[in-house]
Amino acid sequence: METKWWHDAVVYQIYPRSFCDSNNDGIGDINGIISKLDYLQQLGVNVLWLSPVYKSPMDDNGYDISDYQDIAAEFGTMDEMKTLLAEAKQRDIKIVMDLVVNHTSDEHPWFIEAKKSKDNPYRDYYIWRDAKPDGSAPDDLGSIFGGSAWQWDETTQQYYFHLFSKRQPDLNWENPKVQQEVHQMMNWWIEQGIGGFRLDVIDLIGKEIDKGITGNGPRLHPLLQEMNRATFGDKDLLTVGETWGATPEIAKLYSDPARHELSMVFQFEHITLTWQHGDKWNPIPLDLKQFKQVLTKWQTELADQGWNSLFWNNHDLPRVVSKYGNDRELRVESAKMLATALHFLKGTPYIYQGEEIGMTNVAFDSLQQYKDIETLNFYQVKTQSGVSHEHMMQAIHENSRDNARTPMQWSNEPHAGFSQVEPWIETNPNYGAINVEQALADQNSIFYHYQKLIQLRKAHPAIVYGDFTPLFEDHDSVFAYLRKHQDETLLVINNFSETALSVELPEALRNQSVECLICNYEAKQHLDVTLSLKPYESLAFKLN
Ligand code: TEU
Ligand code: CA
């Protein structure tokens, strides 16, 4: 396998609106990010993925872009963006931009033109269809944010298509002009010195609406190969596609280097296991055996072809320690265990802001405290169809995207040190105990555990390139595996449960001295026949 700089990289995702507010208007901004670069360098990450900072009316917090080559005033200016790139570079940190090109904002000049008349030169940049004879929408396709995917336009008497909010009209990727415009814009960003792109819902751009196909359409891979050729193909960039519908087979189509598409994709199979029938508003408990099977499958299937991304969290998902750990009395132990379990896998790990200090879900009492468009839309859709307020509030507490979007907790000062004024969304009330200042002052904190995991990845090629072999596959609570590369073998054992237990080691691993690389209780230097594990205990060893 040809080695790439992003193979041993660790990416840190920033949701700029919630990261750090430098000018005290309650909204995080680019200067805020600049002020925290030393902190990120201390953590050891070498790539930052920025959620969108472009000009936007913020219907979906920036995932609705009205100018791809300008910065939202509330986040700063293009000059500040250039300063961020330069300051990051000085610290050996690359910036990955979020590329949102399935749709634009309805305030993008292309859409403003497109809706003027049917013969406007920009009309075909978007997807328009006539009403059915009875005036209703062309078909039943639904928006991912609830309701129909079709919105009636009074002026031109046609419907336009939007897979997200009606203020996020889908671009028409069948139009070669759309492709060229996007490629030009991407090349402009590449010239600014960025480290790559995270491609928002990229599996939707190959859609064939009239056949009812949205995800994984037949045009998808040819479009990506063309994008690769026209933009980043001959540059050494990290490209990661967001692909909710990816199976390992599909992921290889994107990430097999021979196909010239992307570096890797985000797959969500492990995430949706706790959604009943794919519905996040009907959360179900985690079945750890299934979870292990899914993680193992992805490790095995992409072993020699393609590349995995590794993540528990992002700006759309609940906090990992609340979802799969214990965010109360065993918060520190379980957060460290989850970190080790993920960071020793093969692939490129992504850390979401606040994960490195064990930030938790929030449970706001009232719907008014929530800001996320998906949460607010679905509350309406679901309660109108008969779901109770209580059910919805519980589902929101568990899975709302706002769990990830409460302000980053920097200190125990008012508003968690994120801002001196009331932030755009309330802080999690637990910031007094859970914050960066506290984490940096405690040598046993989750922060230093992440820092060590990042250092270990740079020091041990077995973590980056080693073969993966699962252990205890039938165990209900233990997720364990071996990583082997040349003469180095690593053993990683994680107790995913809050009860103590013990496992009998396979013969080959018994009675030997080992080097403990990282753990969340006491280190062990010797493996006997049985290994006892405390609640959420996690150990990574180098076998001698
Ligand atoms: O997400 C796509 C997406 O399908 C999820 O956000 C989905 O809405 C939810 O998390 C699962 O029910 C991307 C971005 O990550 C998200 O923030 C944007 O809102 C969305 O695209 C539209 O650009
Ligand atoms: Ca601000």
From TrEMBL:
Keyword DNA-binding in annotation: no
Gene3D superfamilies xrefs: Glycosidases, Golgi alpha-mannosidase II, Oligo-1,6-glucosidase, Domain 2
Keyword Cell wall biogenesis/degradation carried by entry: no
Glycosyl hydrolase family 13 catalytic domain sequence ranges: 13-405
Keywords attached to this entry: Glycosidase, Hydrolase
Superkingdom to which the source organism belongs: Bacteria
CDD domains for this protein: AmyAc_SI_OligoGlu_DGase (cd11333)
Molecular function in Gene Ontology: alpha-amylase activity
GO biological process, alphabetically ordered: oligosaccharide catabolic process
Family of this protein: Belongs to the glycosyl hydrolase 13 family.
UniProt-listed PANTHER family: ALPHA-AMYLASE FAMILY MEMBER, NEUTRAL AND BASIC AMINO ACID TRANSPORT PROTEIN RBAT
UniProt-recorded name of the protein: Glucan 1,6-alpha-glucosidase
Protein species of origin: Vibrio navarrensis
